């Protein structure tokens, strides 16, 4: 179904791959295509981690897969942000682009061959449609609040936290520093709560 979660996620994947192919075949496209790809990947990843991976862990019983996928997201996001700071005409950029594309494509293949089928088998069509709506809404909010950064290190405006307490990514990093277990399958609200509890324990 075109409006269910699996269709929405795979549509994003195909668009990312289209942008990757464009940047590899036409260097002049990079100043525009790279910021679009980075923004799209980060919005897609955050929406999955906030709305989809908790369902994968709890409803499909694939907690380890969800945690592994979230870790791959963070690796890919870091590589993408690094590319934004590089000279897009350099050979170093070419090598870094290949590494980034390889990491994302590997993740896409795992997600489409393992994670999404497992979720599809575990829940019904109605649940997939509901998850699709949640994913789309979360993704749209992220894109609406994220300024595009030009390739080569120019930034129109600083990235702002989405809410008090920081973005999900910032909360995730804090949870990692505090040793919060199961953090990869938590949404933003759950991360904020577990970080608060861990900080309280440290202060006792």
UniProtKB/TrEMBL annotation:
SMART domains: Rho_N. Gene3D superfamilies: nmb1532 protein domain like (1.20.120.520). Residues 156-204 have a biased composition (Basic and acidic residues). It comes from the Bacteria. SUPFAM superfamilies: Rho N-terminal domain-like. InterPro entries: Hemerythrin-like, Rho-like_N, Rho_N_sf. Residues 162-204 form the Rho termination factor-like N-terminal domain. Residues 143-204 are annotated as: Disordered. GO terms for biological process: DNA-templated transcription termination. This is Hemerythrin HHE cation binding domain protein. It comes from Streptomyces ipomoeae 91-03. The lineage of its organism: Bacteria, Bacillati, Actinomycetota, Actinomycetes, Kitasatosporales.
């Amino acid at each position: 179904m075109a409006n269910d979660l699996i269709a929405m996620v795979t549509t994003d994947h195909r668009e990312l791959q289209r942008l990757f192919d464009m940047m590899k075949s036409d260097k002049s496209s990079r100043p525009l295509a790279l910021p679009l790809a980075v923004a799209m990947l980060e919005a897609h990843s955050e929406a999955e981690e906030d709305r989809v991976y908790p369902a994968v862990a709890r409803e499909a019983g694939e907690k380890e897969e969800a945690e592994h996928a979230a870790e791959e997201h963070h690796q890919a996001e870091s590589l993408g942000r690094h590319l934004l700071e590089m000279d897009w005409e350099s050979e170093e950029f070419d090598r870094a682009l290949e590494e980034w594309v390889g990491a994302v494509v590997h993740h896409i293949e795992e997600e489409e061959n393992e994670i999404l089928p497992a979720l599809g088998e575990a829940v019904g069509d109605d649940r997939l449609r509901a998850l699709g709506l949640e994913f789309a809404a979360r993704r749209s909010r992220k894109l609406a609040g994220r300024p595009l950064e030009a390739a080569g290190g120019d930034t129109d405006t600083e990235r702002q936290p989405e809410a008090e307490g920081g973005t999900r990514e910032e909360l995730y990093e804090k949870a990692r520093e505090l040793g919060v277990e199961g953090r990869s399958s938590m949404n933003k609200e759950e991360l904020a709560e577990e970080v608060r509890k861990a900080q309280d324990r440290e202060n006792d």
